[in-house]
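We emphasize that the prediction below concerns an isolated chain of 178 residues; any contacts that depend on oligomerization or on bound cofactors are therefore not represented. The input was used exactly as deposited, without trimming of termini.
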Amino acid sequence: MSEERMEKTVASLKERFNGIRTGRASAAIFDKVRVDYYGTKSPLNQVATVSIPEARSVIIQPFDKSLIVDIEKAILTADLGLNPSNDGKVIRISIPPLTAERRKELVKQAKTLAEEARTSIRNIRRDGNDELKKKQKSSEITEDELKVEEDKLQKLTDKYVAEINKIYEAKEKDIMEG
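Result of the prediction step, given as a token string:
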């Protein structure tokens, strides 16, 4: 139960890290872009194909050409710091290199997300320990079993915190090299 929740926390962190732009082009930075499609906000990848022909460029090809202006608008309002341009058929986006200042801001943002994930893991450990103590109080488990289970939970916590740290370090390196 606790391990499952910790696993979800790590998966959520990875997903949130995908939204942080590095200096390289990536389709994942458009995951949060929603396009107004016949009165419904639809994810960009459901109304267009996003391709990365080069390290610093993105081509977005709408399934329906009439959406080209709406897609451009959605990208601009998503506040990704990108300037789309279209030729009537596709939208081209050139990914500008990140400034040193912007890189530092993004690393800070990633650090905050990683700390939130670590806190979440520790809260899951606390919930697990509380559950174990309840079981021990109601004589479902012995005091020795309680200690063994608490140790297991601590090892699990250490494992997931280490995984978060590894993911964060990789993202930090990615942002700084970008």
